[in-house]
Amino acid sequence: MSSLCRQLLRMRITIGISAALALCLAPAARADRRSMIRAYEYATQPAGNLELEIWNDVDAKPAEGFSTAIVTTRVELEYGLTDHWDVALYHVFEQSPPEPFKFDSWRLETRYRLFEKNVLPVDLLLYFELERPADFNAPWETEEKLILEKDFGRFGLVANLVAEQKLFHAVDGHLWEIDFGARYEVVPQLRLAAEFWTIQETANGVTEGSYYVGPSVSWASSRVWVQLGAGFGVGDTAGGTFVRSVLGFNL
pTM for the complete prediction? Predict the structure, then answer.
């Protein structure tokens, strides 16, 4: 190999290593980055910050598999009113075979952090969501979450207590959900997590429960973050396989 070729090779290797280091050492996203696919963490948008998020869910039931999986896409704009309080607007689209891809609902969400991190023994965040189905004959729906988090250095534990009702039509159906998650920050840009959650849904006086467990991974740069994970139904439940990805752009 000639001296020129060796120099070019060394230059390419140096450029490749430098690019990889720049990617790994880039500052983590300042916005509302997610580490888990189900559990919300103790975070809100900074005051004045606007973020675009694109969510994609695939919900496959065990009997049918992915051939009849429900696919849900959410487009969200999220804005920080203060450093402790934000608001978000969702447009939700869904495909439930054999039905075609269609607009499903509008959703308005707000979250409020009571204190800065580590002021209380357990960090506490309040969440409320209002949903208007595209079918105007269907009732409005509400969802409430109590979000708890405790950090131990790079390791964090998260729990969500969730309730959902049909507004003024609670007898037509409601559900409650509990989410538990643990995450580890390998570097500020990369987080690994594992979750367990259960959903208990009641309709026409009959309650069906499902239980899931699964991993997720999250990566963030200064302006973009992405999260991907899956949950697998466990035990004799109505659960199947749930996959979620979220892509966030700090505008």
Answer: 0.85
